[in-house]
Structure formats: structure tokens, C-alpha cells
Design brief:
Blueprint: H1 8-26, H2 33-39, H3 42-48, H4 53-66, H5 82-121, H6 123-139, H7 144-176, E1 183-186, H8 188-196, H9 201-204, E2 208-212, E3 219-222, H10 223-239, E4 247-253, E5 257-265, H11 271-276, H12 296-306, E6 310-315, E7 319-327
Parallel strand pairs: 2-4
Antiparallel strand pairs: 1-3, 4-5, 5-7, 6-7
């Protein structure tokens, strides 16, 4: 299901085309040509409402092509009547206008969600920083335990703000840059270690189980984005599992791909939520009482896609796992890949 999810627009269009073709063929004599043309406009409208210009163009072209079954001479794809040519042009105009409006509505809704997210997720750690800093300044406490607790909260809140801001910057970089990757040879174990520095050591030290292939080869990728990938997946695992439950990181390599799995114990997630976890600003049904912006997993998907890879989520007997598959497009000169 996760594999087909990115192509859901086209699958919906195919289902609509099948239904419309059956109806048009069965009631061909009862329906006038103008009604058949209007019926074939329905898939264009439905897909255009999704806001994807490419999907709209493909579906509109298919809809126009299917009309060759009815416009004389049938199946010739030669149209002599000017009215049909105008109808075809209207199909594209309608699809373009609806898609444009849908995208504007979608962008406005994203802006509103983003502002709400920023106002909440930045305000919360900022309030914690100000509150603890004010407490230390005004009370002049000399108790080491109290000072340590207040300073720890300031550091943790600062890290939360840094993660959110870094996510937003990386998202903008991936969305708007034509060549977003700054590739270099990366040691994946080192990148995991760098990602772990973003979190309190006591939050993961006794819970984390790392299993890496022996002699894990270097990977040619964007080190900064890969660290962000690990940070977001680890942040997700820490948020959605109990404090005493284990978290696993598995990295395996073959000559063709690198497979990274982050797993944690938690209640199972509904199949419909699994498909939507990587949508920007999406929050699963069991996350209402957990703080978060809803963009971390979306950025993970963007980072995987930028490396020509993919990411998927699936339930395990004990919880949930996120699996990232990255193709190995280049090998170090000293690494000779084994042919499977």
C-alpha cells in the first residue's frame, strides 16, 4: 500500500475512467454526444482538485484520447468538427484553472498551519528558556541540583528550537534549490553519533540499541541532510515510545543499497495513518497530546527522495519501524562491491 500511495491520483483517475467508459458504452444510444463529453470532464475536475499540475495534464490528455471511442470517425484520432476541438481546449483550460485555484487554497492553508505551528512550537521552548533563566537570575540559588535542573531545561528547550528551525531551513532548501545536495563521503556511524548529540544523553543512553554491518562502507551523500534524517527519526522514536522502552537503529549495506531502520515500541498505528505519516503537518490520531510540528517525517521523505531513495513506515509485533532505503550510486575507490 505504501508503494502505491504516491500514485494514488493516477489510480483514482484510472478507476474513474473505467467507470465512465462502462457507463458511456452501456448507455451510448441513450446519451447524447454532449453528455458523453461532459462525463469525461469529471476525472479532470476530480484530479485537478488535488492541485497537481502534472497529474491534471496527464489525466486531461487521457480523457481527450478516450473520446476517440465516440467521436466519428471512431478510433481514428482525427477530428474534423471544430466544436470538438473547442471542447478539448476547454478540458485543458478547466483543468488548469481548477488546479491553480486548488494549489492557491492549499498554499494558504499550509501558511496558516505553519504560522500556528511556529507560534506554538517556538513559543513553548522559548517560554521555558525565559522562565528558567529568569528563575536563576532572580533567586540567585546556590543549590547545585536546582541550578543543574534549570540549566538542563534551558539546553533542552534550545535544542528543540534548533531542531524546528533546522527542519524549516532544510525543507526550504530541498523545495527550492535545483541542486540541494552537497555530497561527500559519509561515515554513517559518525553521522548517527552526531545526531545523538541533539538529545540529552540520559534520554537514550540505556535505551538505544545500534546494529551496524561490520565494515560498513562509506556512503556518498549530503552529510548535513543525512544527520537531519537521523535526528528526525530519533526524535520521533523518543516522542512516541515510553521512557523505558528500547529504540533500535539498524544499518545494513549491500553493493546496491543502504538500508536504515529506526524502530521503537509503541501501540500499532492504523493503516490509513501509516500512509499519511509523511504528509507535511500531518499528525496521527494518537499524537494529540504530544508536542510536534508535523514536518519532521515529511522532511525525512524529502531527504530520502533527494538521494533517489525512499522511506516507509510499518507496524512490527512490538511497535513501529521506519525503513529508509538509499541506492548506492558511487563506491569508494578502495571498496570493491560484491556481486550478489
Amino acid at each position: 500500500m505504501n508503494v502505491l500511495y504516491p500514485y494514488r491520483h493516477y489510480l483514482l483517475a484510472i478507476a474513474l475512467f473505467a467507470f465512465i467508459t462502462i457507463v458511456s458504452q452501456v448507455f451510448k444510444r441513450e446519451l447524447e454526444m454532449v453528455n458523453i463529453v461532459l462525463i469525461h470532464l469529471l476525472p479532470v475536475i476530480v484530479i485537478a482538485l488535488r492541485g497537481s499540475m502534472r497529474a491534471t495534464a496527464v489525466v486531461t490528455t487521457l480523457s481527450v484520447a478516450l473520446l476517440a471511442l465516440y467521436i466519428p470517425p471512431t478510433l481514428s484520432f482525427v477530428v474534423h468538427d471544430l466544436i470538438y476541438l473547442w471542447s478539448f481546449a476547454i478540458f485543458y483550460v478547466v483543468g488548469y484553472i481548477i488546479t491553480l485555484q486548488a494549489r492557491r487554497i492549499h498554499l494558504n492553508s499550509i501558511k496558516e498551519i505553519l504560522l500556528n505551528t511556529l507560534s506554538h512550537d517556538l513559543k513553548t521552548p522559548l517560554a521555558s528558556i525565559m522562565g528558567n533563566a529568569t528563575f536563576l537570575v532572580e533567586t540567585h540559588t546556590t543549590d547545585p541540583a536546582v541550578r543543574y535542573k534549570a540549566l538542563s531545561q534551558i539546553i533542552e528547550s534550545s535544542r528543540r528550537m534548533n531542531r524546528l528551525i533546522s527542519n524549516l531551513l532544510d525543507s526550504a532548501r530541498l523545495q527550492h534549490s535545483r541542486s540541494p545536495l552537497k555530497k561527500e563521503w559519509c561515515d554513517m556511524e559518525d553521522l548517527v553519533a552526531i545526531a545523538l548529540r541533539e538529545f540529552r544523553k540520559d534520554a537514550w543512553f540505556e535505551r538505544l540499541s545500534c546494529r551496524f554491518d561490520a565494515d560498513l562502507p562509506l556512503f556518498y551523500g549530503d552529510a548535513g541532510l543525512l544527520v537531519r534524517l537521523f535526528v528526525n527519526l530519533l526524535d520521533n522514536a523518543l516522542k512516541y515510545s515510553d521512557e523505558d522502552r528500547p529504540i533500535g537503529i539498524d544499518i545494513k549495506a549491500t553493493a546496491k543499497e543502504l538500508r536504515i531502520v529506526f524502530s521503537n515500541e509503541c501501540p500499532p498505528i492504523a493503516e490509513r495513518d501509516l500512509n499519511n505519516l509523511f504528509e507535511k503537518f500531518y499528525r496521527a490520531g494518537n499524537s494529540a497530546d504530544i508536542s510536534g510540528s508535523g514536518i519532521g517525517l515529511s522532511i525525512c521523505q524529502d531527504i530520502a527522495a533527494a538521494h533517489q531513495g525512499n522511506i516507509r513506515a510499518y507496524n512490527t509485533p512490538l511497535g513501529i519501524a521506519f525503513e529508509v532505503t538509499l541506492p548506492v550510486l558511487r563506491h569508494p575507490e578502495f571498496f570493491e562491491p560484491e556481486v550478489a
